[in-house]
Write a structure and sequence with these properties.
This protein is mainly β. It is built from one helix and 77 strands. About 17% of the residues have low confidence.
């Protein structure tokens, strides 16, 4: 047939074809634009129009169907980026990739600028893709629009030719500022996902890198750089490393990296069944938020059944001085770096990778929070049924502020309420990862099997329930600074906390090469400061581990449950202490299998403390914990250790302190080993003491009572031998 001439941009033609084969999608027709013939395949029955009549502007009406080649994807991209109609690549209202794409012949991939509607990869793979172009460097720059038009990207793999392994080439690199962009978003699949968009069944193997020369704020992720409000991510997996080598940036608050997404930047996001297996590594001195799955969690979101197995590392050699603003802190988490918006829920998430700081030096003004699941929270956050199996803690850091390390959550501050509990199906929150101190940190340390430090100022108690720690905690002679070391099998340091149904079986071993550090150690909880005010309730908790403390400074406190209790404000009931309890070579260390220290303050009414608690631990006190040292050459010091309580303190006007009660006495198992340096010290213990008579039992059930006149004689013992 003769060529069909399209005389102007508004011309339309209709092509009718009879006896069209079922397997044929279209036919070739020559369209004349006045200068040349252009061959295209047109679909039967489609109305066709030419919006442009220049040879270098495609005739948009020609129908192609699925994207079947490199030429097709490049043309789709060019039409998209040029603002032209994409009708020719629309199949049943969607854009579909119909083949695997090997981009080795494309030197530099220019990202698809904006995808609206649905882009379905149909399980296909894009390999050998390299890009460093634009502010949103990814296969697709933007998913959805800022006007609130959502989009869907699904069923696509980037960076692999077989869908199983890295192709060895694919890489997305942020090298420099582009046109003064406020943010930049390097990622494997989507740089920026707008409101309400969906990312589903996506996999990335490509490397994501921020180069040393880049000096702009950025958020980098294996799947997406950043996601906005209402975005859902489901079954998204990253295998590629996310590296940040940036040397400097004027605004650290905007820098974050994550294995799956760099940041959550809007409320009501839902992230489900996503996983990261690639290393997440920052050498950048100003990246503050680093997470195995998610970097910065600045908005309300729900994160469910996500897993990290990659190593998460902050390896910055120095941080700029932000001492003028205490809002700056380094947050590192195996799943998410932090929670900065009230209402975040983290449910049944797991970390199996190492989470660490290395070679970091921070000035005053920085807080450090490192957690196996989440590094930091200053908002109301719920953590349910989560698990950590990886090592958590710094390998080399000098810090101007306290360091908080937790198997699940590193650091809690502000006036928020954090709840750690079991998931709806009964899955407990568990840590099996270990902490081992490797250097002198030069400042105060808080270490907890579940939570490192809870320093919330909220009057509403924080909650840890149905949580279990199996991971060992070890500090060593490296720590020589005259600072506090707060260690708890469940929480290293807490203010107002409710513990219930918590179990610690992780051994605690701590000591120093000198007597400088002051230890506050508890099988369940350490302390918030050197005071005894460490909680609100401790109900039905079990400490069944070995606690071994050596060479502590004066005023160190060690307890099988807690380093110290304010028994007026903290109810302890139906708890159990088992395992082995050893304290030696300290200087006036207060130690007891229930608590190292207890106090009853002025104005308190009669108190029943430790009702229904059971002691079945092996006990060994030696060295300066007792009146005679077992270490040759050491002089004896005051005795502040006892089977139950290390030391009591009280004030005038305080009520009677009942240890246990007649109905719920403290149960002491006498069949366990009790060792001490003073022969016969525990030779005779009479149970069911006479109320008010504390003197004879001063060095048996308790080590030392601060014997002020107004307080003398106000302790009532209610103890029985365990059957």
């Amino acid at each position: 047939a003769a060529p069909i001439s399209l005389p102007n941009a508004d011309a339309k033609i209709t092509v009718l074809v009879n006896n069209f084969a079922e397997t044929t999608k279209g036919f070739v027709i020559q369209a004349w634009n006045g200068e040349n013939h252009i061959d295209r395949t047109w679909q039967v029955g489609k109305e066709l129009s030419a919006e442009h009549n220049k040879i270098n502007a495609p005739l948009l009406a020609f129908y192609k169907g699925e994207i079947q080649s490199l030429d097709d994807i490049c043309e789709y991209r060019d039409l998209n980026n040029g603002g032209y109609s994409l009708t020719r690549y629309t199949v049943d209202g969607e854009f579909k990739l119909g083949t695997d794409l090997d981009m080795s012949s494309i030197e530099e991939w220019v990202p698809i600028s904006v995808v609206t509607g649905v882009f379905d990869g149909q399980g296909h793979k894009v390999s050998n893709i390299v890009s460093s172009t634009g502010a949103r460097i990814a296969f697709i720059a933007t998913l959805g629009t800022s006007a609130g038009v959502p989009a869907v990207l699904k069923n696509l793999t980037v960076g692999s030719s077989d869908g199983l392994t890295y192709d060895g080439v694919s890489k997305f690199t942020l090298t420099s500022d582009v046109g003064g962009s406020t943010y930049m978003y390097p990622a494997g699949l989507v740089g920026y996902a707008h409101v309400g968009s969906t990312l589903e069944n996506l996999t990335n193997f490509a490397a994501i890198e921020v180069s040393a020369g880049c000096n702009v704020p950025h958020r980098a992720g294996g799947i997406a750089g950043t996601i906005k409000s209402g975005v859902t991510m489901t079954n998204c997996v990253n295998y590629g490393p996310v590296y940040d080598y940036q040397e400097s940036c004027a605004n650290a608050s905007k820098l974050s990296i994550g294995g799956v997404t760099g940041a959550i930047d809007g409320d009501n996001c839902v992230i489900t069944n996503c996983a990261n297996y690639g290393d997440v590594y920052s050498k950048a001195p100003n990246v503050l938020y680093i997470g195995g799955v998610i970097g910065k969690g600045a908005y309300i979101s729900t994160i469910t059944s996500c897993v990290n197995e990659g190593t998460v590392t902050n390896d910055a050699s120095a941080y700029f001085d932000q001492s003028a603003s205490t809002s700056y802190a380094i947050h590192i988490g195996g799943v998410i770096a932090d929670a900065l918006a009230s209402g975040i829920v983290i449910d049944k998430c797991t970390n199996k990778g190492m989470v660490t700081l290395s070679n970091v030096i921070t000035p005053t003004g920085f807080g450090l929070g490192i957690g196996g699941v989440i590094g930091y929270s200053n908002v109301n956050t719920t953590i349910k049924g989560c698990r950590n199996e990886g090592f958590v803690g710094p390998s080399n850091v000098t810090t101007g502020n306290p360091l908080a390390v937790g198997g699940i959550l590193g650091y809690v501050t502000s006036s928020c309420v954090v709840t750690i509990t079991k998931s709806d199906d009964g899955t407990e929150t568990v840590n099996t990862g270990d902490f081992t101190q490797k250097v002198d940190y030069g400042n105060t340390i808080y270490i907890g099997g579940i939570v490192g430090r809870n320093n919330s100022s909220s009057a509403t108690p924080q909650v840890i329930e149905y949580a279990r720690n199996e991971g060992p905690i070890t500090t060593n002679s490296k720590q020589t600074a005259k600072k506090g070391i707060y260690i708890g099998g469940i929480c290293g340091g807490s203010v107002i906390m409710k513990y219930s149904n918590c179990v610690n079986t992780g051994n605690i071993t701590t000591g120093s090469s000198n007597n400088n550090p002051t230890f506050y150690v508890g099988g369940i909880s350490g302390a918030s400061t050197n005071s005894a005010k460490v909680g609100k309730e401790m109900i039905s908790c079990v400490s069944n581990c070995t606690i071994n403390v050596t060479k502590g400074a004066a005023a160190s406190r060690v307890g099988g449950l807690c380093s110290g209790f304010d028994v007026v404000n903290c109810k302890v009931q139906d708890c159990e202490v088992a395992g082995t309890f050893r304290v030696s070579r300290g200087t006036t260390v207060s130690a007891g299998t229930l608590s190292g220290y207890c106090e009853v303050n002025t104005g308190a009414t009669d108190i029943n403390a430790f009702e229904g608690c059971t002691i079945t631990a092996d006990m060994k006190f030696s060295g300066a914990c007792w009146g005679r040292s077992s270490v040759e050459g050491e002089e004896p010091t005051a005795s502040n250790a006892g089977i139950l309580i290390g030391q009591f303190g009280g004030e005038a006007g305080a009520g009677v302190l009942n240890i246990g009660s007649t109905e719920s006495p403290v149960s002491v198992q006498m069949g366990k080993t009790i060792e001490q340096t003073d022969t016969g010290r525990f030779a005779t213990i009479t149970l069911n003491n006479t109320p008010g008579d504390y003197g004879y039992y001063k060095n048996y059930l308790t080590g030392n009572i601060i014997d002020t006149d107004p307080y003398a004689g106000k302790i009532v013992w209610n103890t029985v031998a365990a059957e």
